[in-house]
Design a protein that fits this description.
With about 525 residues, this protein is of the alpha+beta class. About 25% of the residues lie in helices and about 40% in strands. It has seven helices and 20 strands. The protein has helices at about 10-25, 30-40, 45-65, 70-130, 275-280, 410-420, 445-450; strands spanning about 155-170, 175-180, 180-185, 190-200, 205-215, 230-245, 245-255, 285-300, 300-310, 335-345, 350-360, 365-370, 375, 380-395, 395-405, 430-440, 455-470, 485-495, 500-510, 520-525. The strands form three sheets. A 16-stranded antiparallel beta barrel has the order 1-4-5-6-7-8-9-10-11-14-15-16-17-18-19-20. A hairpin with a 7-residue loop joins strand 19 (about 500-510) and strand 20 (about 520-525). Helix 1 runs antiparallel to helix 3 and helix 3 (about 45-65) packs antiparallel against helix 4 (about 70-130). The longest helix has about 60 residues, at about 70-130. Residues about 1-15 and about 25-40 have low confidence and may be disordered.
Length: about 525
């Protein structure tokens, strides 16, 4: 062991070595070496290495042999203070670096969470736009049935829905007769209609909606149905939502009259067939080209008012107005009509309302009569009024409607249509018609299975339909009692889910004149 204290040169060498170690721990290594090491190690490894270097330098300083004398002690204290300051600075730098790395890691986590949220929202948007929801919110909106209202429940983009009806009808007799040119009293089955709804929500205030109907299985003539079925546009309109109390609607629109014309999906009424009043006096499904307004000016109060092309009186008959529908197919628009409707819901599930339609139906038409002379149809002002109500409460479902119509120039119109061969000489168009019906059903299934979500509703419906209530005065105008019907219907509606219904009923027909076969009817319907 050498002499103590060591010679000055030894202390100087040790000091130089310590300084090199401390400088190295502070990152003051030669540039090439420092850059190589920094690039080779991650921040945490570099920080750990620097801490080890500090510890090593401090250890060397503390174990260095003490110098003698006051000057040596002061020098050692000065060196210790200097090294302590350097180490404090290095520790502070390490703390700041750790804080920066922690903040960077937090930002990275937040960015990752943001990206994850964006991806999730994008996937939800794609699913919402491009797929059909598994469960449909079963509620109508803006005057339409649940299936036709799907587009309103979208945030944006395409909506697809529809409904269908398939029926079987067996008369209680085997007679074959004709009434109004339609063969009746035959057992028949029919793919009565299949509907496709297609809508598009451009944004939160512009909506397009449409309904395409396929009737009776095929448009081709068959050995049974010589004329075949049909394909029709029943809806094709744009809605512009401007305010709660006033919004615009234009295109092919449904006349907002009665209970069934706007809400004619099979889950919306009892019985296999729609009530007769809703097929004669209110000629469901009745649509024309027009424009109008709709809205909800007060809570529970809604309205719709349209102007559209009127009916065509050339199609009127003793059976009612059904033949006068123009169906938006190159419609005559010389005569326009106006229709308005108001509904009020004073309490949930109770709706009462009324509507009225008025407009000329002659359409300025001229026909060549039997004599070769031109026959001009009269103006034939047509007015239809109805009042309706619907109520649901604790398993009870009830609906009722009263409808009446007035036709000016009924006598002149009858004579003109006889002259051009559209009516037989003993047929008369009435100047007043009257119809009504009421139906009630009750869900009995909860009494059998309290926890079930299915429904089984026995129901009863009474109808009175008279399209020959009053005929023009004159010896050639006679009311036909065959068009004055009373119909009693009893049946069952079974709904395994709200969108599907199986129906069975028995209808008893009692016309004032003649006989009509009672029928047993079976049907199924669905909405999606």
């Amino acid at each position: 062991m050498g002499p103590w204290p060591p010679p000055f040169s030894s202390l100087l060498d040790l000091t130089v070595q310590m300084k090199m170690i401390i400088n190295f721990s502070n990152g003051a290594a030669p540039a090439a070496l420092s850059e190589s090491m920094r690039s080779a190690k991650p921040p945490a490894a570099r920080r750990s290495a620097r801490l080890r270097g500090l510890g090593f330098a401090l250890g060397l300083l503390l174990v260095a042999p003490p110098t003698t004398g006051a000057a040596g002690t002061e020098e050692r204290i000065r060196l210790l203070e200097k090294q302590l300051q350097m180490m404090q600075g290095e520790l502070q730098a390490l703390r700041e670096e750790a804080a920066r790395e922690k903040a960077a890691a937090q930002r990275a986590r937040e960015e990752q969470e943001t990206k994850t949220d964006v991806i999730a929202e994008t996937v939800d948007s794609i699913k919402s736009t491009m797929t059909i929801p598994e469960e449909m919110e079963f509620q109508g909106q803006y005057g339409f049935a649940p299936g036709a209202s799907k587009v309103y429940r979208r945030d944006r983009g395409l909506s697809v829905g529809g409904y269908g009806e398939i029926v079987y009808r067996k008369p209680t007799t085997n007679r074959v007769r004709t009434a109004g040119g339609v063969t009746v009293d035959q057992t028949r089955s029919d793919a009565q209609r299949l509907i496709l709804y297609t809508g598009y929500k451009f944004n939160d205030w512009i909506v397009f909606n449409s309904e395409i109907e396929f009737e009776h299985g095929t448009t081709d003539p068959t050995v049974t149905q010589g004329s075949g079925g049909s394909v029709s546009v029943e809806l094709a309109y744009l809605d512009l939502f401007l305010a709660d109390w006033a919004n615009f609607r234009g295109g092919v629109v449904l006349a907002p009259m009665g209970i069934i014309n706007e809400i004619h999906e099979p889950i919306g009424f009892f019985g296999v067939d729609r009530p007769l009043v809703d097929r004669t006096i209110i000629p469901t499904t009745w649509r024309e080209i027009g424009v109008g307004l709709f809205g909800d000016p007060l809570p529970g109060l809604s309205y719709r008012v349209y102007a559209f092309n009127g009916l065509n009186a050339a199609g009127f008959s003793p059976a009612g107005f059904r033949g006068g529908r123009q169906k938006a197919s190159k419609s005559l628009a010389n005569d326009w009509a106006f229709v308005g409707r108001v509904d009020y819901e004073p309490i949930p599930d109770l709706i009462v309302g009324t509507s009225v339609y008025t407009g000329n139906s002659g359409q300025g038409q001229n026909f060549e009569g039997d004599s070769g002379a031109q026959v001009r149809l009269p103006s034939a002002l047509t007015t239809i009024w109805e009042a309706h109500g619907q109520w649901r409460w604790q398993g009870i479902e009830a609906r009722a409607m009263l409808a009446a119509s007035w036709l000016s120039d009924a006598g002149d119109l009858t004579l003109a249509l006889r002259d051009v061969g559209k009516l037989d000489s003993d047929e008369t168009i009435a100047n007043q018609m009257l119809g009504m019906y009421a139906e009630i059903g009750y869900d009995i299934l909860p009494w059998i299975f309290p926890d079930t979500g299915q429904q089984l509703l026995p129901f009863f419906r009474y109808e009175y339909n008279n399209t020959q209530l009053h005929v023009p005065s004159g010896p050639t105008f006679l009311a036909d009692g065959a068009f004055q019907d009373r119909i009693w219907t009893i049946g069952l509606n079974y709904r395994p889910i709200p969108q599907v219904v199986l129906k069975a009923d028995y209808r008893d027909w009692s016309p004032v004149t003649g006989t009509k076969a009672n029928t047993v009817d079976l049907g199924l319907g669905f909405v999606f």
